[in-house]
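Before the break, one more example. Copy the sequence into your notebook; we will annotate it together after we see the structure.
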Amino acid sequence: MNMEYIIRSEGVWRGFPVGGDTFWALKDINVTIPKGKLTLLKGRSGSGKTTLLNILSALDPPSKGTVWIGDINVTELSDSGRDKLRRKKVGYVYQSVALIPMMTAYENVEFALRLARYEGDWKKRAEECLHMVGLGNRMTHMPQEMSGGEQQRVAIARAVAAQPDVLFADEPTAELDTNTGLAVVKIFKDLCAEEGVSVIMTTHDTGLMDIGDAVYELEDGEVVGTLGIPGAAGPTAGEVLS
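Here is what the structure looks like once it is written out:
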């Protein structure tokens, strides 16, 4: 595998039984996700972007096809093997931040380090991650004392605390206003530059397209456009962003 890419899929299909037939949510998906960059999966609701995100992140298996994370063939792993890969190499940020309400920002991040069995200094790493997302002065605050944007930043700090290779973010800006959403995406860009993490984010917000290093546009379970993917076939940038 070309190590300029962190993830690659070949011929990925995902089907769900509907009545006596199969509904194909994904159809022959071939993507290459660049290492250390912000990649956007763009599409309307029902386009297949979240289904693809779940398969690329080893949460769900494809019905057909192959996915690699680094040089690991994820589709050949056992359930326990996928669990171990997710714990060691993958971080997740969701639209719903799902912070533990009875824990401070610091405790939420440190708890993630405990779950991941992080081998470094938990206190130092938790504080470092909260400073990284601009919350060094909010560590002792409870989630209910923080704005939606601040809670999402805590969720990002928690997701990257154990130093994953890849961070998957499913519509992380959907509940935020435009300026706060842009600030969250800037944090992702900074993480790519400073931590070397590769970020894959789903969005339906066309206003974010210029920020991504690479874009895949999905429609009805198929890739219909690409931007910033060397060698990939697809419409021009103008067509993707229209």
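The domain at 34-60+90-241 is CATH 3.40.50.300 (Rossmann fold). Residues 12 and 29 are 5 Å apart (CA to CA). Try to locate both features in your own notes.
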